[in-house]
Amino acid sequence: MILLFVSLFSFSVNSNAKSITLGWAAWDPANALQELTKEFTAETGIEVNFEFVPWPNFADRMLNELNNKGKTFDLLIGDSQWIGAGAVYGHYVKLNDFFDKEGISMSDFSPATVYAYSTWPKGSENYYALPAMGDALAWAYRKDWFDRPELKSEFKKKHGYDLGVPANWNQLHDMCKFFQGREIDGQKRYGAAINTERGSEGITMGVTAAMYAWGMEYENPNKPYDMEGYFNSPQAVEAVEFYRKLYEDCAPPGHSDAYMVANLDAYKSGQVAFQMNWYAFWPGVSKEDSDGRVSGFFANPKQNVAAATLGGQGISVVKYSDKQDLALEYIKWFARPDVQQKWWDLGGYSCHNDVLNSPSFPTSTVYAQGFLDSMGIVKDFWQEPTFVELMLPMQEAIHDYVVNGKGTAKEALDKIIAEWVEVFEADGKL
Amino acid sequence: MSVKKKFKGLSDKAVGWLFIGPTVLLLLAINIYPLVYAIKMSFTNFYANKIGREPQFVGLKNYIKVLNKEAIWEKMQVTASFMFWTLLLQAIIGLGLALLLNRKFKGNELLTTLIVLPMMLSPAVVGVFWTYLYNPQVGLFNYVVNFFYDLGSFDMIGSSTLAPWAIVIVDTWMWTPFTMLICLAGLRSVPNYLYEAAEVDRASKWQQFIYITLPSVLPFLLLALLFRGIENFKMFDMVVELTSGGPGSATELASINLKREAFEKWKTGYSSAFAVILFVTIFGFGNVYVKVMNKIKER
């Protein structure tokens, strides 16, 4: 009996010693990664446990874990904005020596993703993550409705141009409004499911898609943290006003606190003609539409400039992990070009040049070209260690203006700048 | 050594301490120590997420900052309005239901059980399912309202005018049974002979209500409102699930703002000052309220 107990105990100790835990958000790509990782376990014998946290709680859960120096996770696929905090507060292991030793070159990965997901300070050669999941905010539309001759001719008659992929935000608004309240197949349809979520980052990610396209800059390129006249420039104000117009004219009723899943649900249930969402969701949308008849996809439309909101994440080794060696082994495996190709094939968005530059890549899926286009024009929110403190006032002020209809766009942006100045002052940046 | 022998020689006072000792220790560890620590932190510029950065003493700066921040007063106003309307509605409806259920009729017990069901649910669950009930397209709430009075499509959660009422309605739905139960206990403690004497004195039903029922049940009602007031001052989960404090900041209660400052922005020193101010506020109001309540009881 004692022998049995001892052998069971030693088995459990051994199995723990050869296992690591990876934390990420609970969404489709996480399931693809779980599938992919089976090959890693088969090759190395290292078990990988997964903890996927729903998006609304993802940042809270993971950042609390890091701040408390928790050992739950050995690997973390953290949002791009966390990289500053991960590096400055010492949550992530610096990977330069490991990359050099294993011959992993960052030049093998798309420059935009290396810049966004791996480096701190920005643009330096200090790497704290391997680009894991490229992503950007994009649009899906109901191609089957757009292809209907009666709707096409009615739209052309009204607007003088074809109903199709919008060339800019004005056209996007025209098309969304065209479908707003329209009855199709006996059901009332609406224009667009756009980001309006208040609690985490939703409305900020949505409104910045417009602000970037209008040419907004966060700060004076020659004077860091000087935001006056940049973040609240006339173009930025116009973009925020436009986003409110899009919400008022084109969102389905009750779409006042919506982000990824709510947008997806509104689209899948046939309520809306357009949805704004991350590329990460397109494999799921596309899978249900094998002949490509129902859905079409396109990159964020340009207005004054071509730009898109960056999503996506890098994979980092947690400094507090007792199994850093096993975690690094996973990163070494994940960085391999053949694994990256399988990652893309399973529905993950590889950032590896071998995958992205492959001649067959643009036609490999209906959204692949859009993804390539987007990754060339992405812009991200502040990646400062204080990004949560910067995000929350923006969430509140933009939601107050766009959804609540309070004040003006200029007032909202001024209010955000005032809060941001306070944050940067407390952080010693100003 | 037997237990009896072991404790032989201990004074009554010592035995008393032996019994309450663990509780006192627990109280000190999980209530008093965090409170003292929070008060200490409130005088510093501590950020819990900035590892290695030593907190510096900043005097009353955090308190001055909290009290001078316009946004904080907005949250306090939202909290005050939420408390006023929920307590008022729960007092009126709770007392009304208690009066109804105090009568003997068939199905009384079943009805009481059904009425108290909402307060047995988790506030987070309640928040989630009311978001569906309030859905302008498929929500039952909107359907029922439109059935009686055609308002067309309206969004309870997305409108800054309606959202504060949305949270008041849900809290009232959930917690009126609590007020009702306490009032019912009060009503059932009123001796019958008082009503019999009133009947003899030819007092009308209204007079019986004003001079017997209400004074008897009032201390119970005030106690229920005290509990509800304290709970609603700290209200968090249900509102977060229902509106996330939105639209904008229309339903951002003080406790939601405190959580955001403390555990999202990690402004530990500042949020400790805010927490101390909230604690002093509710403690002060609670004390005044209890004194008033005792005076009413003494009458």
Summarize the structure.
The complex is a heterodimer of chains A (430) and B (299). Chain A is an alpha/beta fold and 430 residues long. Chain A has helices at 2-17, 28-44, 55-67, 83-88, 96-102, 111-117, 143-146, 149-159, 169-179, 202-214, 234-250, 260-268, 282-287, 324-334, 337-346, 353-356, 368-375, 387-402, 409-426; strands at residues 19-25, 47-53, 75-79, 130-133, 137-142, 183-184, 187-188, 190-193, 272-278, 295-299, 308-309, 313-317, 378-379.
How would you explain this protein's 3D organization?
- The complex is a heterodimer of chains A (430) and B (299).
- Chain A has 430 residues and is an alpha/beta fold.
- Chain A folds into 2 domains: 7-135 and 312-379, Periplasmic binding protein-like II (D-Maltodextrin-Binding Protein, domain 2, 3-Layer(aba) Sandwich); 137-309 and 386-426, D-Maltodextrin-Binding Protein, domain 2 (3-Layer(aba) Sandwich).
- Chain A has helices spanning 2-17, 28-44, 55-67, 83-88, 96-102, 111-117, 143-146, 149-159, 169-179, 202-214, 234-250, 260-268, 282-287, 324-334, 337-346, 353-356, 368-375, 387-402, 409-426; strands spanning 19-25, 47-53, 75-79, 130-133, 137-142, 183-184, 187-188, 190-193, 272-278, 295-299, 308-309, 313-317, 378-379.
- A 5-stranded mixed sheet of chain A has the order 2-1-3-12-4, sandwiched between helices. A 4-stranded mixed sheet of chain A has the order 8-9-5-10. Chain A has a two-stranded antiparallel sheet with strand order 6-7.
- Chain A starts with a helix and ends with a helix.
- The model of chain A is unreliable at 6-15 (pLDDT under 50).
- Chain B is mainly α and 299 residues long.
- Chain B has a single domain (61-298), classed as MetI-like (MetI-like fold), CATH 1.10.3720.10.
- Chain B has 13 helices and no strands.
- Chain B has helices at residues 3-7, 12-41, 61-68, 70-101, 108-116, 123-133, 140-148, 163-188, 192-200, 205-233, 237-243, 254-263, 268-298.
- The longest helix of chain B has 32 residues, at 70-101.
- The radius of gyration of chain B is 25 Å and the shape is globular.
- Chain B starts with a helix and ends with a helix.
- The model of chain B has no long low-confidence stretch (mean pLDDT 91).
